[in-house]
Amino acid sequence: DVTVTIYPDARHELLNETNRDEVTADILGFLARTVGR
């Protein structure tokens, strides 16, 4: 499973950016889809 997500306003430290809630939701969604396989 390879997914590329570009966060336009983010720099290099995604979990400490202003859109960290969106990034965290994407990470948790990825884990939910892949861990349960």
What would you say this structure looks like, in words?
It is a single chain. The protein has one helix spanning 20-35. It is mostly helical and 37 residues long. The chain has one domain (1-37). The longest helix has 16 residues, at 20-35. 0% of the residues are buried.
Total domain modules: 1
Head-to-tail CA distance between termini: 12 Å
By secondary-structure content and strand pairing, the structural class works out as mainly alpha
| Count of alpha and pi helical runs | 1
Order of helices and strands: H
Describe the secondary structure blueprint for this structure.
Elements: H1 20-35
Considering the chains and any ligands shown, give keywords for the structure.
37 residues; mainly alpha; elongated; single chain; 1 helix; 43% helix
Summarize the structure.
With 37 residues, the chain is mostly helical.
